[in-house]
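Subject: Sanity check before I submit

Could someone independently write out the structure tokens for this chain? I want to compare against mine line by line before I put it in a report. The sequence has 144 residues.
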Amino acid sequence: MTALMYALAAGVVMASASIVEKLGLSPTQPYAGLFIRSAAVIVFLGLSAVPFARYADWSGFTPRAVIFLALGGLLAGLVAHFLYWQCLKATSPDYAVPIMVGASQVAVVILSMAILRSRVSIGQLGGIALVILGLSLIQLMKPR
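---
Independent answer below. Compare away.
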């Protein structure tokens, strides 16, 4: 699969998850929901360890890699998801998801430039400007 196909598939799965999570959040609080979500992931990973073990190559792990992956999991899987669910609890996925995705795109470019010293093209900067414009329009046109 190409990177584009993976990205498109991940987007469709995340969109589907947003709808399912909105349904699940109606009777519960976001922080409690994180425990259920995390438990489900742990159970699935445990059950999939045997049939999918051949996909887990542990040879490339270094202490630095483990620290960064664990930190990424805490940031994305706990902190960001908690904040996202707080937003999703208060509004609909058609508002929450575009704002979250747009904000993350802008942040990725800025953080990549600052931390990874990535070079950003004029086209990317133009794209970021369009994302910011889109986020502004979403906020301005939000139904009251």
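---
OP: Matches mine. For the report I'm noting this point. The CA atoms of residues 113 and 120 lie 7 Å apart.
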